[in-house]
Automatic annotation (TrEMBL), chain A:
Coiled-coil regions listed: none
InterPro entries the record matches: 2Fe-2S-bd_N, 2Fe-2S_ferredoxin-like_sf
GO MF term list: iron-sulfur cluster binding; sarcosine oxidase activity
One Pfam family this sequence matches: Fer2_4
Keywords from the UniProt entry: Oxidoreductase
Source organism: Stenotrophomonas rhizophila
Protein name: Sarcosine oxidase subunit alpha
EC number of the protein: 1.5.3.1
UniProt-listed SUPFAM superfamilies: 2Fe-2S ferredoxin-like
Amino acid sequence: MSSRVCLSVNATPVHVPEGATVAVAIALAGGAFRTSRGGEPRAPLCGMGVCFECRVRIDGIAQLRACMTPAREGMQVRTDG
Amino acid sequence: MAESVRHYDVLVVGAGPAGLAAARAAAAHGVRVGIVDAQPRAGGQVWRHDVAHGAPPMARRALDILGAGQVEWLAQTQVTMAQSGWLLADSPAGARELHYGSLVLATGARELLLPFPGWTLPGVTGAGGAQALAKQGWPLAGRRVVVAGSGPLLLASAATLRRHGARVLGIHEQASRRALAGFALRLPRWPSKALQAAALQVQLAGIGYHAGSVVVGAYGDTQLREIEIEGPRGRHHIACDQLAVGYGLVPNTELAELLGCRLERSGAHPQVAVDALLRSSVANVFAAGEALGIGGRDSALVEGAIAGCMAAGGTDAAQALQSRRRQVRAFATELQRTFALDPRVHALAQDDTLICRCEDVPLRALRGFTDPRDAKLASRCGMGACQGRICGTALAELGLGDAERSTDGGRRPPLFPVRLAALADSFTDDSQGIHP
């Protein structure tokens, strides 16, 4: 079993394997990655940093692509703005 | 911020098979090489590191070059602007100025993602997208997944998803049974590809492969619950948790365009125009791999080697690889013929289907415009975070927007959204002789 990393998604702790991305942590936490202009829930489409559907706030910095950001111990992720 | 300014004889943008091959070839000529990629790990998409299974064996050898003394590897480094002789890139450590003597563009490809009713629902991803997410550690154990769209990527995606514990309910390929049968007959001309296909067949044993079959709708409230398929025997619904649907790949040409390299069209999409030695129309700028038109890993490897040699001044070595390049590109042409898109795939989007996912612009709002730029100004289509990469490519494919004048056309910096602080870092540093 590989080592695990603990981070928080909307203040809830989530454990992911070492090397996993923030996108994986959000998927495990459940719920949407962002809300569209029209109020719809959205989640990753391209998985490789092109579509920006997975953009979230990480440690206070907005608009970061969760699928391109490795999960790190203690990270604070917000999907609600 | 002296450490943020770097000088290379050869700078390679993109660390997939083409970029890695270019870095290796250039380094063999004894020059100083830099290689950058926006992703945290090298390998590109086809050799993406798998959290559960590591890197594929073939990739491990190619990745060795990153540990060699002459090659500097810069991860999570996103090129945002091009100046004369240097690129500005954003990284977690701040802005970086990357100066070069020669530049190799190995910017790869992205997936062709086409709009259809329900495609914005969580649970709908690209086919390559699903594969990329699986390798990141995306939870798939026991999940019911349908793979659809077109091309050989569907098989690779299904194999990866199954390996990560997904229940793959079926693969739905839009190409007709007849087109696929012709391809199967010609496949033995490329023995290594025939072997690869046979190996995939074993990995996919028990999963139905349906030709002439297209996803026409995805349904659910806040999460995908079922999809509708139109196949040779009519329409039917399949209950599933995830849909992995992609219609092939399109070259990433944004940086080439920003540098002023001449682009040419292949079908609806632009690719970087080069001569036989992979020189672009701009002096000292070379290109390799998918940026030249979709050719797959084998084309990327040989073209990366050619471009890397050329960038380091090794014309003879580049000449020696010409026949190999012709051979692998011939297979790519065969794939394009087999998996050409059925016109019904272009007609899936309905009036209320969102085309621009960033700005929530439905197809209805784009009708009646002859100039895509007018449509963009009136609707905001293409003005969101992805900068038109998804909707612009889709509109070009659907024949609703000229690629050069579409929502992602007329590329201007920055190439990707960038924090003001990162720009300020580089443009307020007088010691570098740079002024706003």
